[in-house]
Fold each of these.
Amino acid sequence: PELNGDGAEILMKSYACQRRTPLKHHNAFLTEALEILAQNAEFNDNEGRSVAFRRAASVLKALPHRVKSMEDLRCLPCLGDHSQRVIKEILEDGSSREVESTRQSEQFQAMKALTGVFGVGVRTADRWIREGLRTPDDLIRTGQQLNRAQQAGVQYYSELQRAVTRAEAELIMAIVEAAVNSVLPGCQIQLMGGFRRGKEVGHDVDFLITHPEEGKEEGLMLKIISWLEEQGVLLYQKTTRNSYVERLDGPARSASNMDRFERCFSIFKLHSSASRSGSASTSESGSACDSGCRAVRVDLVVSPFSQFAFATLGWTGSKLFERELRRWAGQEKQMTLSSHTLYDSKQNLYLRAQTEEEIFAHLGLEFIPPSERNA
Ligand code: CTP
Ligand code: MN
Ligand code: MN
Ligand code: MN
């Protein structure tokens, strides 16, 4: 077994949801490289390969020390031949040729630039690249047909590329609280995603909203959105209705990983001055984003109170941690976990929970706090 610096034994569990993964770790020089290959595999629509690299990177994030030699990797799970080859090359030469040539490649850079546009997925980006387009500017220059989300994505491209700070997240929290409290008093509002895991910056800000009286949350999203629109806060929004139905015979087999809450993908407008001084200003209306204005991606989700714990667990991330939780549930426990429920196929029943702790317990897992879910 692997020994750490003090000669103590490290037992690395094989599912990321069985491990504690802090935000700051000791092997960024390796995980960044492996994640380039993971991203490239995603760009090539090769999910299996992408997940393999992400799992390998995640194991290194959970190590309590910096990897110095291949000896340090003995007995670690999830490190396939390819990942080991890449790690070996970085340890010996300081970098991996495959990683560096991927990073430099025109295809990779164009995919990164185009999928970096809000509303653009891998398939669309790939089609554009085959047509000779490389950057968001090319989309405008050639007058590409864009849907409403992509139009907003192109329009606010550089703003949305800038990392969102925790201060900006707090500012948006105050705006969301004002909106929610004025349309329905007594709601609970929780900051989700990367910020709940302790990240200092993010690509967006995620919120989960519920009301302790089941049923009160119905139709809430539309009211919140109207309030925000009246205040001139929204540069873009797309709201989807709650389409979740609990089936007596368990979750539908086809169930995708997407949840079915009332949700809103949006772009908020902040005033840069307010964003710097830390005070909310929502008085001006209109939907243009001028030079004194900051555009930030915001995700809002409304859940019924009975599903709040599942929604909390499902929207905290990281994405790999979530994926591993579902894999653990299915493969090790014959259960189906979603952001709505946990279904036990052996007992043919839904397992209820009011807290995340209860869900981990149902799954036979040690509780991992949000700050250690940075898998
Ligand atoms: N999520 C989801 N369905 C989506 C998008 C996201 O369930 N269509 C969940 C993810 O599983 C994740 C959480 O929402 O748990 C946050 O996702 P996201 O904002 O994309 O990532 P973060 O971890 O918050 O990282 P970042 O700082 O880049 O926003
Ligand atoms: Mn450490
Ligand atoms: Mn997020
Ligand atoms: Mn999000």
Amino acid sequence: MLDNIKDAVRKFLSGSSSYEQAVDEFIKDLQKALISSDVNVKLVFSLSNKIKERLKKEKPPSSLERREWFIKIVYDELSSLFGGDKQPDVVPDKIPYVIMLVGVQGSGKTTTAGKLAYFYKKKGFKVALVGADVYRPAALDQLIQLGDLIKVPVYGEQGNYDAVGIAKRGVEKFLSEKYEIIIVDTAGRHGYGEETKLLEEMKNIYDALKPDEVTLVIDASIGQKAFDLASRFNQASKVGSIIITKMDGTAKGGGALSAVAATGAIIKFIGTGEKIEELEVFNPRRFVARILG
Ligand code: GDP
């Protein structure tokens, strides 16, 4: 996406055709670039129509300032999808605060649970982790290791498959011990029946915990599947925020836009590596600037 859009901008600015024509051509290039970056097609059209309208309605400044003006319009419209200019508020507005992490297996959920715990611990909160991913055998061990590393307690019940019960008991225990932020890791894959069962389990955990926030963890490389996936999780348990993992990879990131559009949730963090400290508060300006080059 990055290079394509940069190319489209360059072409637009250096073209010798009329301004109207240049806008039309640019919009086509922009659409192609966004679609090839896995941004949902409907979203691409609504976004590019808005940009086109503004480019045609607003009077372009002198050619010297045209680049900045033009980039600002594309930037404004792209970033408005991510909540505009503001960085997300990641400090809980109440204590205790229960965060439930959902997402498919391999998205980086367990790793992210550890990263979040570390992030909030460093901010001075009393943090605990609950491991309710009962279908991936190593998930609890992985969480316990992360907990040891950052000195955060972990609740889990090895060998028990009752995810709802485990989540409930874990959260209750930590609430009674006056923990301030409790992060619950859930399954990304289910045994029998797969996705329907998984989403049913998410809904049951959600109903049992009534978490303050459900955070959808998605891999930056998820692509076009992001829209549907995010919608389905959103139906099972209302998604309030999104964390995009593996932003250090080569992924194009279009799925992030789609997940935002599908859920109406905001992106709060991005994962930028495998290490526990490699979590950054999402910065819409930086993200869009990266897209525009
Ligand atoms: P889960 O199945 O969703 O719980 O996924 P895991 O937490 O086990 O992560 C799957 C893999 O992705 C592991 O190898 C992690 O180290 C890796 N991973 C998680 N987040 C990131 C990230 O932000 N960047 C990179 N490069 N790898 C990540």
